[in-house]
Structure formats: structure tokens, C-alpha cells
Design brief:
single chain; 130 residues; mainly alpha; 97% helix; rod-shaped
């Protein structure tokens, strides 16, 4: 039969064997994880340069488009200034004569209205005096 020390040593050996087995399993999984991570990093390294080239060409096209937009904005600003100048000139040239024409038209209508009113009053007086 086994003595107490031998049983303790046997239990310790079994525990040590189980612990070593779990450590081996964990180590195998860790190695698989490291291999998978290495593959992902390698794949990423292969895909990155074309992506960077695409990004660079996209940035260049965007810069070109922004330069065109800047030119268009400058042209619109110049056109807006021209339209403002033409509007001010038109206002200065046409406003004075239009105001005068409107004043004359108003005066003529008022005089014509007063003459009609005076003619109506005169015709009433003539009818009353008869």
C-alpha cells in the first residue's frame, strides 16, 4: 500500500500533469492566434500601398475640383460686381426721368380730373339756372 507521502506525491504529479496539459493547450491556441494575426498583418501590408495610391489620386482630383470651384467663385463674384454696377447705373440713368414722367403724368391726371369735376359743376349750375 502507499504511504501518505507517496499519495501526496502521486496527487501532486497528477495535478502537475493536468496543469501542464492545460498550459500546452493554451500555448497551442496562442500560437494559432499569433499565426492568424501575422497573416492579417501581412495581408494588410499587401493591401495598404494600393489603398494609399487611391487616396493620393483622390486627393489630387479633389484639389483640382476645388481649384475649379475657386475659379468659378471668383467669376461669380466678378459677375455679381458687374451686375451691381449696371444696376446702380441703370437706377441713376432711369430713376430721374421716370420720376419726372410719373410726376408729369400725375399732374396731367389731376388737372384732367379737376377739369372734369369743374365741367360737372358747371353743367349742374347751367341745369339749375334754367
Amino acid at each position: 500500500m502507499l504511504t501518505g507521502g507517496e499519495v501526496a506525491a502521486l496527487v501532486a504529479a497528477v495535478v502537475w500533469a493536468v496543469l501542464a496539459t492545460f498550459m500546452c493547450v493554451a500555448l497551442v491556441k496562442l500560437i494559432k492566434l499569433i499565426n492568424a494575426a501575422t497573416a492579417v498583418v501581412s495581408d494588410l501590408g499587401e493591401r495598404t500601398p494600393p489603398l494609399l495610391e487611391d487616396v493620393a489620386s483622390t486627393v489630387e482630383r479633389t484639389n483640382t475640383s476645388l481649384e475649379r470651384v475657386e475659379e468659378i467663385t471668383a467669376n461669380v463674384q466678378a459677375t455679381s460686381e458687374d451686375v451691381s454696377t449696371v444696376t446702380a447705373l441703370t437706377r441713376a440713368v432711369l430713376t430721374g426721368p421716370l420720376v419726372r414722367v410719373a410726376s408729369i403724368t400725375y399732374a396731367v391726371r389731376r388737372v384732367a380730373g379737376q377739369r372734369r369735376a369743374l365741367a360737372v359743376v358747371r353743367s349742374r349750375r347751367r341745369k339749375e339756372s334754367r
